[in-house]
Design a protein that fits this description.
about 600 residues; Immunoglobulin-like; Rossmann fold; Four Helix Bundle (Hemerythrin (Met), subunit A); 4 domains; 6-stranded mixed β-sheet; about 25% strand; globular
């Protein structure tokens, strides 16, 4: 079966003959799975890359890498153009067949950052390049990447969105990618929504190649564009709410993302069903799905009637509540809370914004438990911490992005974005109840952790010369080095604290771990002291969240399994006696450390 299917998952499997029923329903749009030898439509891509001055360093390097990756994935029958912009727009590669990939990638590798950000003009030129070779039977898309504000040429978001919508009506969609914390998330989100494309928030430039990979794979598996869902309530049934907050077409149909093979989309609907006449079943709503399909001249359509048995009130009360429906309603409500919290922050009402997040978190915790709900609760905590620390840019972008992806159905996303990264975390299921949720183990980069303090595994001279010590100094900037010079060294097992400077963390706690000498020179006692002194110092500075690296397991040679047991034992003991510290995160860079810490927690 090549057509998508419409499936229904109701909160209860019946409606009442005697009372008004409020019924939440998951409407699942399920495209077919991709074939083993997927015949994909031809692609006509316009890559539009910001090369303004703020893209200097890692951003432009990863942007070049991502664009080169995209080119290498194309077939010789696909088309590609490359437009670059600062305050001047330049067509680096006019639209061409992707036959000379090496030449195209060499041109991309020449891109270097320069001046201001003519975002709209850059997008317009990219759209022109795609439009010149519009392929009605293929997929035509502009992919816009930016890390800054539109501050040259047209800067009005409504005017830009109108232009994007107009181009989409001609058959050219737009995907937007925002890098870092300085771009306009409202503009990029509305451009993607208006342009029938996707919007991505890229926290660090290292994610760029993976995001491009996801976008291209989604394009290659796209089977339907201009997707619309109509809802026709029957009898006196009333559609109270569509929790996704989808845009509505002039015909009153809900606009859905593209149909991508293998990626279902979930619409969460709330109905009010009046008492129904006794019958085997009742027609409640008719759902009609329509879309444009490559290589099909006529618009495709399917209809599906939603029916449920009609039972007495006593029998309805015996019907169990579906936990999946409960969870999805709570997740969509949390998405709304995040969006409203952003509005409150824009008004300067931080207290109300924080309360909205806390209320949403309590609702998530009260819903049927699952890893997804746990991830959402963590995400809400982290957002509130950003808010409390007045990291407003990070808070605003992450809140907007999480809300956007939830409303467009999280199952639509397949790459390791924020939520998937969260799902890789170990939350200490085997810990006592009083510690569960207070200890995490993750594999990643400690310099990227949004906690109150990170721990630096340094040497006795606080030199910043190797391993995690050097990485933290690079990320923090020269101010950290200058402050460390005032501390007059650090004895093995001791802990000293400095500010975090350019790091997301406010504080850095420095500790000098012991070198491994066979295990007979008191190394275990000294390593335990490192953790004890770091945690004590954190408590003195009212630090609520702290991240540790795998101290001494690198070039100091401490065996990972032994070091992890010491670390976890010390942290558990401290947390059981002290409630001030809310969360400890072990951030492991090496796989072997990650595995050992997982086993030790």
């Amino acid at each position: 079966m090549n057509a998508p299917q419409i499936e229904f998952v109701p909160l209860r499997d019946a409606v009442s003959t005697e009372a008004l029923t409020t019924l939440d329903v998951l409407v699942k749009i399920v495209p077919p799975q991709p074939e083993a030898n997927l015949k994909r439509p031809e692609l006509n891509l316009g890559l539009v890359i910001d090369r303004s001055g703020s893209m200097a360093g890692k951003k432009i390097a990863y942007a070049r890498q991502a664009a080169c990756y995209a080119v290498q994935q194309l077939l010789g029958s696909d088309r590609v153009s490359v437009t670059i912009y600062d305050d001047i727009v330049e067509t680096l590669i006019p639209s061409t067949l992707a036959t000379e990939k090496n030449y195209i990638t060499r041109q991309i590798e020449r891109i270097h950052p320069r001046n201001m950000t003519a975002l709209h003009d850059g997008w317009v030129e990219g759209g022109k390049q795609v439009s010149q070779y519009l392929n009605p039977e293929g997929l035509n898309r502009v992919i816009l990447l930016s890390d800054g504000l539109a501050n040259k040429g047209q800067t009005n978001a409504d005017a830009i969105a109108s232009d994007v919508y107009g181009l989409a009506q001609q058959g050219v969609s737009t995907t937007t990618m925002g890098v870092g914390d300085d771009y306009n998330e409202d503009l990029l989100e509305v451009m993607a929504n208006s342009g029938d494309g996707n919007y991505y928030y890229i926290d660090t430039p290292e994610q760029l190649p993976e995001i491009f990979q996801t976008e291209l794979h989604g394009l290659m598996a796209t089977m339907g564009r201009e997707v619309r869902l109509g809802i026709e309530p029957q009898a006196d049934v009333d559609v109270v709410d569509v929790f996704n907050d989808l845009d509505v077409s002039p015909q009153g149909e809900f606009k859905l993302p593209n149909l991508v093979k293998g990626n279902p989309f979930v619409v969460v609907v709330r109905l009010k069903v009046p008492p129904m006449r006794a019958a085997d079943s009742a027609n409640l709503c008719n759902f009609r799905l329509s879309w444009d399909e490559p290589e099909q001249k006529e618009r495709q359509r399917i209809r599906q009637m939603f029916q449920l048995p009609v039972v007495a009130a006593a029998a309805l009360a015996e019907c169990p509540l579906n936990p999946e429906v409960q969870q999805q309603v709570v997740l969509m409500s949390a998405a709304r809370a995040k969006k409203e919290a952003v509005q409150k922050v824009d008004e300067g009402d931080y207290a109300t914004a924080s309360q909205l997040l806390e209320t949403a978190r309590k609702q998530v915790l009260a819903a049927p438990a699952s890893p997804l709900m746990e991830q959402e609760a963590i995400a809400l905590i982290d957002l509130d911490r950003d808010l409390q620390s007045r990291r407003v840019q990070q808070f605003r972008k992450m809140s907007t992005y999480q809300s956007h992806r939830s409303r467009r159905s999280m199952s639509q996303s397949t790459y390791h974005d924020y939520q998937v990264q969260r799902s890789q975390r170990y939350r200490g299921q085997n810990l006592p109840d009083d510690l569960r949720g207070r200890i995490e183990v993750i594999q990643g980069d400690i310099t990227k952790q949004r906690v109150d303090a990170i721990v630096n595994a340094t040497d006795n001279y606080l030199s910043g010369s190797g391993g995690v010590d050097a990485a933290i100094h690079r990320a923090a900037g020269s101010g950290l080095k200058k402050e460390c010079e005032q501390l007059h060294g650090c004895k093995t097992g001791e802990a000293k604290i400095t500010r975090g400077y350019n790091l997301p963390a406010r504080w850095v706690i420095h500790t000098a771990g012991p070198a491994w000498q066979g295990g007979h020179q008191g190394e275990d006692r000294m390593l335990a002291l490192c953790y004890q002194n770091c945690l004590t110092l954190a408590e003195q500075y009212s630090i609520k969240t702290i991240a540790f690296p795998a101290i001494s397991t690198g070039f100091l040679g401490f065996p990972s399994d032994w070091a992890s047991r010491i670390a976890c034992s010390q942290v558990r003991t401290f947390l059981q006696r002290n409630s001030a510290i809310e969360k400890v995160v072990f951030v492991c860079f090496q796989q072997r450390d990650f595995d050992c810490y997982l086993n030790s927690v």
